[in-house]
Design a protein that fits this description.
375 residues; alpha/beta; Spore Coat Polysaccharide Biosynthesis Protein SpsA, Chain A; 2 domains; 7-stranded mixed sheet; two-stranded antiparallel ribbon; 15 helices; 9 strands; globular; Glycosyltransferase family 32 protein; transferase; transferase activity
Length: 375
């Protein structure tokens, strides 16, 4: 385990350079894997090349004998073309929060088992604590690229700090990437705190807020942000404000000026989908360079055949996906203009002669929407 804390190792939490130097000095061969296989849990339907990176980076960096990747999704994704080259390495499961909550203290907690919101956060928050409690393992947010073997930190329970705020007991451990042992006291306390928490959709009530309550009851390891989100650590460092904006721009929108900004000594990079989901990946930006870096590792490990064109495979999928999206949007646009312009609606309602005609319009609307989204 990595036995560090904010009291004895303060500079690791406030200086990203010191953090990365520390990680570079770790000799992984002196660590042992846990006795049982460690699960890595990811929740996504993998709908883009960005989301696929969490799968590819796991396969490129982790020990596949001592760890297992479990991909949770809201529906069956076994036929997803993006996943085709990697299917044999993934345990794909459809997430049923009611079923997963069975035999836990949340089993009869309807307010949480039925909680939902526009951003899908409630599903994710419940899953990231219930699943590790029942199955154990590392939780990895979909918007994460793994950069190094987690072997040195799999035998301990941990999360990481949000930025450089060290008030762990009040607000700041983050649940984006963490490790929880099966049926452990730590895992149990997490569920107990969920049970005491009010449902607040589209908030961090089961993220930083929850882990702060857990930490207050029982201390656990909180790693520096630079271990998993180096840019975020830099952006909270008053001494690094002059380079923070430049580094963020290089993540997606501009070419990386120096490869040191890839921060390859970190365990991972949390790239923040909520802010960057729709950004184009510019050639030689950090994301693009990491794609090339991970693709090379996949071929070196024979996860895919060295002659397999990974870039072409993903580009074909994304091109087809965009075409399908445009087609759907055009259909919805037509549908909107036909039914949802206020003046038109009023005109149509006045023209309806009987109940059967009204039923036809309603039926048509439902059939149209069903055809658009039936896939």
């Amino acid at each position: 385990m990595l036995n560090i804390n904010k009291d004895d190792d303060l500079e690791l939490y406030t200086d990203h350079i010191k953090s990365l130097e520390y990680l570079r000095s770790i000799k992984k061969e002196v660590f042992d894997f846990p006795e049982n296989v460690t699960n890595f849990h990811v929740y996504s339907e993998i709908k883009s090349d960005k989301e696929l990176m969490v799968i590819k980076s796991y396969l490129a960096t982790q020990d596949l004998e001592h760890t297992k990747l479990i991909l949770w999704s809201d529906y069956d994704v076994t036929d997803n073309p993006l996943l085709e080259p990697y299917k044999k390495y993934i345990d794909m499961r459809v997430y049923d929060r009611v079923k997963e909550a069975e035999w836990t203290i949340l089993e009869w907690c309807d307010r949480w088992l039925s909680a939902n919101d526009f951003h899908h956060w409630m599903d994710s928050w419940i899953l990231r604590f219930v699943v590790p409690f029942k199955h154990g393992g590392a939780w990895i947010d979909m918007d994460t690229i793994l950069l190094n073997d987690f072997k040195p930190i799999l035998d301990q329970e941990w999360a990481y700090v949000w930025g450089q705020n060290l008030d762990f007991e009040n607000f700041w451990p983050i649940a984006a990437i963490m490790n929880i042992h099966k049926w452990s006291e730590h895992a149990k306390i997490c569920l107990e705190e969920i049970l005491k928490t009010e449902v607040e959709p589209m908030t961090t009530c089961l993220d930083k807020d929850l882990l702060a309550k857990v930490y207050k009851r029982r201390k656990f390891t909180i790693f520096p942000a630079a271990f998993f989100d180096t840019e975020w650590s830099i952006s909270h460092d008053d001494n690094e404000k002059n380079i923070s904006q430049m580094i963020w721009e290089q993540c997606f929108s501009k070419p990386v000026k120096d490869d040191k900004w890839l921060f390859l000594d970190a365990f991972a990079w949390h790239w923040h989908n909520s802010s960057n989901k729709y950004k184009e990946i510019v050639h030689w930006s950090k994301f693009h360079k990491l794609q090339l870096h991970i693709n090379k590792k996949l071929k070196e490990r024979w996860i895919v055949d060295p002659d397999f064109d990974i870039e072409k495979h993903e580009m074909e999928f994304m091109t087809q996906s965009k075409q399908n999206t445009y087609s759907t949007l055009n259909k919805l646009k037509k549908f909107y203009h036909f039914y949802f312009r206020p003046k038109f609606i009023w005109k149509k309602l006045r023209e309806v002669k009987d109940l059967n005609e009204l039923k036809w319009h309603i039926s048509y609307m439902f059939r149209f929407v069903n055809n658009v989204f039936k896939k």
